[in-house]
Amino acid sequence: MGNSSEQLQDKVPIARFDLGSLPAEDRYSIWKESISVIFDVEREVETGSAPFAATLTTCHLGSMLLADTASVGQCFQRKSPLIARDGLDHCIIQVYQYGTTRGRWGERHSTVQPGDVFLLDLTQPLDSCASDFRNLTLMLPRDLLAPHLGAPERLHGRSLPRDSARGRLLSQHIATLWEVATTLSSDEAQCIARGLVHLIGAYFGAGRVEEDRPETGAVLLETVRRHIGNHLGDPRLTPESLAAYFRVSRSYLYSLFQPLGGITRYIQQQRLRRAFLELTRPASRPRRVSEIAYRVGYRNEAHFSRSFRRAFGMSPSEARFIGLQAVRYTAKGHDQPIDRSYERWVRELNAPDF
Fold first, then answer.
1. What are 169-224's pLDDT values in tens digits?
2. 215-313 CATH pick, 3.40.50.720, 1.10.10.60, 3.30.360.10, 3.40.50.300
3. Is 125:78 a contact under the CB 8 Å cutoff?
4. Quick one: 299 exposed, middle or buried, by C-beta within 10 A (0-12, 13-18, 19+)?
5. Separation of alpha carbons 268 and 257, rounded Å
6. CATH number for the domain formed by residue range(s) 5-212
7. Which of 159, 180, 281, 323 is deepest in the core (most CB within 10 A)?
8. Measured between alpha carbons, how far is 209 from 189 in angstroms, rounded to an integer?
C-alpha cells in the first residue's frame, strides 16, 4: 500500500497513513503526535512487546470522513484541555471489526464489542483503553447530525448492540460504504451523506421518545449555540438576554440546554474553552492573560483564573506554557514519508448546505 493522497478526476480524496516503513523506534512518537488531532494516547509497553504498529486510511466524503484504523492496543483520552484546545465540534460513529474498547464516556461506563455501533461526541470527555483492534470510524460535523438527532451529546457513549436489528443494519451499512468509498464520485458521496445522517438519526433516536425533542427545538438549540459562540465577549450574554433575543421563555431555553448541563454552565464552558484556545495559540503570546479574559467575557481576572483552574486543573499561565511546548515539539518533527492529510481534513471538516 503506497503512502500518498489520491484524487482522480472527481473521485473522493484518500489519505493513507502507514507506519510500517518507518524505524520501529520512531513509530509510536509519530503516531502519538499525529493522532493528537483527535485523541491523547498512551501505551503500556510490556517486556517483549512487539514494535508499535498502526495504519489509518481515510476517505474524504465531502461532508464526513470515513476511516479504517488498525493498531496495537492503547488508551485514548479526550479531557478538558484537549477539548478546549482543538475546538472540534464533531461526532463519531464507530464499529470495531475486531478487538474491544472499554472505558468512561462522560457519565457512561461500558465495553464495546466487535459489531456494536458506537456514538461519541467530541465535545464531551472520554477515557478508554482498547485491545489490539481494527475499526471503521465515521466522523461528521455536529451541525450535520443534530437536526436528525436533537442534541448528540445526550447519546455520548451510547451503542447499538451487535445483536440488535438496528445495530446489525447500521454496522453493515457502514461496512458496505467502506467497501465502495474509494469508487465514489464527489456527487455520489454527498448523496450518500444525506441518506446516512437520516439513518443514524432514526436508528439512534428510535425508542427514546422521552428524550426526543421536536426538530424545530433541535434547530433552535444549534442556532442559540452558534449565537453564543459569536458573542462570548459580551458580558450581557445571559439566559435572560438570550430568551429575549430569540423570543422564547426562559423555561423553554433551560429545557433545550438541560442535556448540556444547563445554559449558564454551557456559556461558562464555552468562554473558558475559547480562553484556553487563545492562551495556547502562538499568535496570542503578546496578549496578557487579563486581555484574553476580557475578550471572552470576564471582567474580573481573579474570578477568571479561579474558574479556569477548576475547569482545566491548571492556571492560565500554565496553559500558555503547554502551548509553547507544543510548538517546540512540533517544530522538531520527523521527515517521515507518510501522508498526514487526514489531520487537516479533521480540523477543516464542516457541514455543507444541502
1. 999 999 999 999 888 888 888 888 888 998 998 898 865 433 444 455 767 887 88
2. 1.10.10.60
3. yes
4. exposed
5. 13
6. 2.60.120.10
7. 159
8. 31
